[in-house]
Amino acid sequence: MRTYQVQPGKAGEFLQMYQASGLPIISRYARLIGCWTKETGVLNSAVFIWAYDDLGHRTSQRALLAQDAEWSTFVPRMLPYLVHQESVFLNPVAFSPLT
After folding, report:
1. Is the dihedral of CA 25, 26, 31, 34 positive or negative?
2. Signed CA dihedral, 45, 8, 39, 27: sign only
């Protein structure tokens, strides 16, 4: 789960830019489960859930993403929008529908 807190008033612009430019790149390395904005808690935030087989798979895929030249040019375009970002690795339990 990746949470981006963006500059106040910039969430819509950030999400449009991310969808058009970032999503096609990162989707080569991870499967998007969903993206949400927050109505409570830390506002001006977008939460992405990306699927990986396990933590090792995430580690290897993120390493490949870091080497992707298109990603390297996208990140500097994304950074001015950000106030804070957080990554949390979630392990599904046996009865989780997304396993």
Report:
1. negative
2. negative
Query: Which contacts of 57-64 are long-range, i.e. CB under 8 A and separated by 24 or more positions?
Result: 58/30, 58/89, 61/29, 61/30, 62/29, 64/29
Instruction: Give the whole-angstrom CA distance, residue 76 versus residue 90.
Output: 27
Could you give the CA distance from residue 89 to residue 58 in angstroms, rounded to a whole number?
9
Query: Residue 13's closest CA among 29, 39, 37?
Result: 37
Asked if the model's pLDDT at residue 46 lies above 90, the reply is yes
User: Which pTM value belongs to this model?
Assistant: 0.89
* Domain regions of the chain by residue span: 2-87
Domain 2-87 has CATH 3.30.70.100: yes
3-state secondary structure 16-48: HHHHHHHHHHHCCCCEEEEEEECCCCCCCEEEE
Cα Rg for the chain, rounded, in angstroms? 14
Q: What's the confidence (pLDDT) of residue 99? A: 60
